[in-house]
Amino acid sequence: xxxxxxxxxxxxxxxxxxxxxNKVQYILAQIGFAVGLGNVWRFPYLCQKNxxxxxxxxxxxxxLLEGIPLxxxxxxxxxxxxxxxxxxxxxxxxxxxxVGIASMVVCxxxxxxxxxxxxxxxxxxFNSFQSPLPWSSCPTxxxxxxxxxxxxxxxxxxTSATSYFWxxxxxxxxxxxxxxxxxxxxxxxxxxxxWLIVFIGMFKGIKSSGKVIYFSATFPYIVLIIFFFRGIxxxxxxxxxxxMFTPDMSRLADPNVWRDAATQIFFSLGLGFGGVIAYxxxxxxKNNCKKDALTVASINCGTSxxxxxxxxxxxxxxxxxxxxxxxxxxxxxIHDFFNEYHPDHQLNVYVMLNVSLLLQNWQxxxxxxxxxxxxxxxxxxxxxxxxxxxxxxxxxMPAGPFWxxxxxxxxxxxxxxxxxGTLEGIITPLRDIGxxxxxxxxxxxxxxxxxxxxxxxxxxxxxxxxxxxxxxxGTLPLLMIAFFETMAVAWVYGFSKFSDDIKxxxxxxxxxxxxxxxxxxxxxxxxxxxxxxxxxxxxxxTPQYEVYKSKIKVDYPGWAIGFIVCLIxxxxxxxxxxx
Length: 579
Description:
It is a multi-pass membrane protein. Keywords: Membrane, Metal-binding, Sodium, Symport, Transmembrane, Transmembrane helix, Transport. GO terms for molecular function: metal ion binding; symporter activity. This is Transporter. It is found in: Membrane. It is built from 26 helices and 4 strands. By secondary structure, the chain is mainly α. It has one domain: Amino acid/polyamine transporter I (Up-down Bundle). The strands form 2 sheets. The protein has a two-stranded antiparallel ribbon. Strands 3-4 form a two-stranded antiparallel sheet. Helix 23 runs antiparallel to helix 24. The radius of gyration is 27 Å and the shape is globular.
C-alpha cells in the first residue's frame, strides 16, 4: 500500500513532462490518429460486401460494446499514470511490461508498410500535375500501326489504363512473390520523401507534430466536403448511394459480418497500438477524458459513414460512365451481327425469312449486362479503390487533375495523422523507460532504420510483401495486446482502484454499471471470441495471395508462411518473455 501511494504521489507530482498547447490540439491529434486510410478505403468496402446499410447494425453494436469502452480505458489510464505504453503496464504490474513492448513492436511493423502507402500517394500526387492525367490512356507500341492507328500495349489493352499505370508504371510488379526483382527507383524516391516529411513533423515531439496536426487532421475533412458536393452532382451518384445503403438483412445471420464489424471498429480507433495512451499521457490529469473518448469515437464513426457516401457517389459516376460505354459497345455488336447476314439493312424481310438461322447464330454474340448495378457489384478496397477505381473516375471528371491533386493530398494527410500517432507509440515509451538520447536523435534514427527496411516494399515483389504485413502484422497481435490491457486494468490494477482514479480526474461518482460490465466482462469476451475466430479462419485455409494479371489466388510458398508466423509472434512473444 505504501509503495502504491508513493507511486501515486510521484505521478501526481510529475512536473517535467511536456504537454499539449491546448485542448483542441490534443483532440485533433487523437482524431488524426484514429481517422486514417481505413475510414476511406476499408469501411465502404465492408459496408458494400456485408449487406449495405444492414452492416451498420453490427458496426454500431460493436462500437458500443468494444470500441468506445476500450478507447475510453486507454485514454483514462494514460492520462492518470502519465506514461507511455511500457511505463503504464510496468506500473500496473512488472509481469505486464511485455504488453507495452509488444505494442511498440506492432507500431514499428505497421509504420514500416503504412509509410509505403503514403509514398504511393505521393507518387500519384506528383503525377497529378499533368493534363491529361498520365493514367488516362494506354501507351502505344512504338513504330507499329494498323490502318493508320497506333497499337496499344497488349498488357494495358487487356486490363485498363488505370490498372496498367498502377501495376506497371508505379509498382512494375513481378509475376509472383518468388521473383523479388530490383528496387523501383521511383518508389524509392517517393519513400524517401514520405519519411522526410514524417521526420519534419515528429522531430520535436508533440511540439512539432502538434503544430502539423492542425493541417493534417482538418484538411481531409475539407476535401471530403468538397468531393461530396461535387460527387452528388455527377450522373450515377444516386445509383451509387442506393447500391451502397440498400440493406440486405439476411447478411446479419453470417458470423463473418459481425467479425468484420468488430475488427473494423478495433483497428479504426487504433486500440492496442499505444498511440492513444501516449497522446493522453501529455494531458493535464483533470482533463475530461470521458468526454474526449466519446467525441473522438463519434467523429471517427461519422467520418467512416460520410467517407462512404463520398466514395460511392464517385464510384456511381464511374459505373454510369462504364455502363454507357458498355451500351455503345453492345449496339455496335448487334449492328455488326445483322450486317454480317444482310448488309443492305432490309431487316424486316430478312428476319421473317431466316428466323431460325438468326436464332441459331445469335447465341454466338456475347451480350453483357450493362446496368449500373452490375458495374457496382465488384467490391474494391485498399489500393484497388484509391489507385485504380478512383483514378478511373477522375479521368472522366471535368478538371480531372485538380480533383486528383485534392484526393491524393487528402490521402497523404490521412496517412500522416495516423503515422504521427503510431510513431508516438514507439518514441514515448522509449523516453519513459529512461533512454537518455535527445528526442530529435531518436526520431532521426527511427526514420532512417525504417527507411532502410522499408526499401523492401520498393522491390518489384514489394506489393506482395506489403500485403503480408497489412494482413498479419497487426491483426492477431493487437487483439491479444488489447485483451491483456483490459484484463490488466479491470482485474490486476482493479476496477475499484481504476474507478477511484476516474473519480479523482473527473469528479462525481465514477464510472457506472455500463463501464464495469464492458471493461470487466463484455469487451474481454468480445476480443477473445474475435481472436479465436481469427485463429480458426487462418487455420482452416492455407494463406493465399493474388497473382498479378491472372487474378488467380495461389498458396504462399513455405518461406512466406514461415515469415507470416514470425511476423505474428515477434511482437506477442514479448508478453511471456518479460513475464
